[in-house]
Amino acid sequence: MREDLSVLVESCDYAAALDVVDECAKLVSSPSLIGLRCLRATPARLRAIATTCNDVMTSDLALAAREGLHGGGGSGSDSTGGVPEAALASVEAASAASEAKTATAAAAAPPIDAASLSSADADAVEAMLPHACGLLRGDGGGARLAGALRAWGAAAASDVVDATRRAAAACCARAAAASAPSSTLTRFSVNGGADDAAIAEACRGMRAAAFDATIDAIRVALTPHFTRAAAVAASARRALRVGVGADPEARSIH
To answer: pTM, whole model, 2 decimals?
Structure first.
């Protein structure tokens, strides 16, 4: 059985490895084997293996949940900060227009549509599901899954802060490029990474319409993060519905 356990761990089949750990733990705790000196260290070794498996699945779940997101290990252009071009165009139009024409210019800008990541989110659910089901195996499975989700939540919150900063910097840069030379915005530069103080100063120098367009642009940039959060919740619910030891493919996402 030790050989089986080693093979499962080396092949990254951590959920199955936990099943073997549970079987071994039951065997060494049986009345006929309690007290054998040769097995005294076995329970501690099994607990260490279980901890390693659960830690890896927790990390893998978080990685799968963040896959493909700008600011979460995915791709994205620093020049746009994950903001669609239509949203940046709205900021630029509102910054360049005169006060009398601001409303007209903003209304004439291309519509801002929330990015659709439905297929990516569905892929994320499928990628997270084996790890979620694996964490549910054995005693304390619910607590392990909850801990993994808390770890993901902390990383996701950091991603949202980073995405907000990148989107705001991109909007400020676009507004600065379109503003009059006398505007304080022209001092803003996204090169080398704009800090929070520079972004705040640039936002204070924006026209009201440009600031409104910036808020809308940030909202659009954050939409994928919020829809991914819903996908993570869906994966956790599906894992709980499937149940411990069940085939994750047995039920569809609802």
So the answer is: 0.71
